[in-house]
Amino acid sequence: MLAPLENRAILEKEPAEPQSALERENAALRRALQKARSSQKRMITLNAARSIEQANRIAVLETQSSNLRARIAQLESGQAIIELGRQLMELREANEQLIVAAQRVWHLDKTICAAHRECERLARERDDLAFRLCQHASHHIEH
């Protein structure tokens, strides 16, 4: 493991023209070290992003799991069946009320139809009587 440097510029600076083979090799090693550090920083950043993404996925899955456990507990307790039974009873009662109302509407419709036919019969009878009255009046006028 490398000890941290107080002045990293010492490692990163490039001499103008390496003088010896040792200096050239040293410069090449510095460049390789800089490249390795840069690559390592990119990998650390990428791994950190992946870790955050995985942590978010885990949090979502834990929330979904918790919700499913609660739903399973509710189903196992029988509360869902009791609630469905209550709703069924309410719907049956509402259905019975609708049936009674539909029968009432049917009877009212039949009564209205009968009243309409009676009105038509009375109108014909009125018209017939009015016609006879006119005929009778005109017969009296002629005599």
Largest sheet: none
Give the uncertain stretches in residue-range form.
none
User: What is the straight-line distance between the termini?
Assistant: 144 Å
Query: What oligomerization state is this entry in?
Result: single chain
Please describe the structure with a list of short key phrases separated by commas or semicolons:
143 residues; mainly alpha; 2 domains; 3 helices
Chain-wise SSE layout:
Layout: H1 9-12, H2 21-77, H3 79-142
What can you tell me about this protein's structure?
By secondary structure, the chain is an all-alpha fold. The protein folds into two domains: 20-77; 91-143. It has helices at residues 9-12, 21-77, 79-142. The longest helix has 64 residues, at 79-142. The model has no long low-confidence stretch (mean pLDDT 89). Residues 1-21 are annotated as: Disordered.
Summarize the structure.
With 143 residues, the chain is mainly alpha-helical. Helices cover 87% and strands 0% of the residues.
